[in-house]
Amino acid sequence: MRRQQDDLLHRGIGMTSQRTRERLIQRLYEEGLSNAAVLEVIRRTPRHLFVDEALAHRAYEDTALPIGHNQTISQPYMVGRMTELLLAGGPLDKVLEIGTGSGYQTAVLAQLVERVFSVERIQTLQERAKERLTELSLRNVVFRWGDGWEGWPALAPYNGIIVTAAAADVPQALLDQLAPGGRLVIPVGEGTTQQLQLIIREGDGFARHVLDNVRFVPLLHGSQL
Ligand code: SAH
């Protein structure tokens, strides 16, 4: 078992050498990521295991890559940026993620917060992500196949919510499921006009911060096999 895992972690080690990973971290730092814990987790998370073997040699480039079903694994900079925003208010217990995709962002989060609840609308992607996290022995994640527009009400409230697809409007269900002081990081907008927003539940209302211009795949409705 142990042996199997070692083989898996070192698959394609030539192309995914420590040096290549260090270069990525250096670049993310130069681009403005500053949370040492987040950078360290990105450094040690084997992103090449989250893409097709044919793309493994590009896994440590700072770029989004296709994962099938017209979806992409997020760019490492964006994974780091969103994770930093989520964690900037202090340690997080329960985090809801909408858009599991490859499971890469999920794996990063799982190493920085207590528990992750991750919702994906495409069942095939969800199953593969689940396998990868099991292989990496990340056990504090629960997966759900469903429509993220509804959040995951049964387990609410959450201290943090991260959405990795762009919504035309912020889903009301996600606002409702945010704990007091909870933080929601979400790309909002359509087509090429999208902005990353940080929304914090404060008292009876919400504080909204409009941040970077971004480019994400759309948050779709319904679920599919
Ligand atoms: N963080 C992922 C990003 C995947 S791309 C990664 O790094 O791999 C966005 C993902 O959101 C896709 O997998 C897409 O299927 C999913 N998605 C889109 N709309 C959704 C919805 N309404 N509910 C749940 N997942 C959704």
TrEMBL record:
Keywords: Cytoplasm, Methyltransferase, S-adenosyl-L-methionine, Transferase. PROSITE patterns: PCMT. Its EC number is 2.1.1.77. The keyword Cytoplasm applies. It comes from the Bacteria. GO terms for molecular function: protein-L-isoaspartate (D-aspartate) O-methyltransferase activity. It is an enzyme of class 2 (transferase). InterPro entries: PCMT, SAM-dependent_MTases_sf. It catalyses: [protein]-L-isoaspartate + S-adenosyl-L-methionine = [protein]-L-isoaspartate alpha-methyl ester + S-adenosyl-L-homocysteine. The keyword S-adenosyl-L-methionine applies. The active site is at S74. GO terms for biological process: methylation. It is found in: Cytoplasm. Belongs to the methyltransferase superfamily. L-isoaspartyl/D-aspartyl protein methyltransferase family. Catalyzes the methyl esterification of L-isoaspartyl residues in peptides and proteins that result from spontaneous decomposition of normal L-aspartyl and L-asparaginyl residues. It plays a role in the repair and/or degradation of damaged proteins. HAMAP family: PIMT. PANTHER family: PROTEIN-L-ISOASPARTATE O-METHYLTRANSFERASE (PTHR11579), PROTEIN-L-ISOASPARTATE(D-ASPARTATE) O-METHYLTRANSFERASE (PTHR11579:SF0). This is Protein-L-isoaspartate O-methyltransferase.
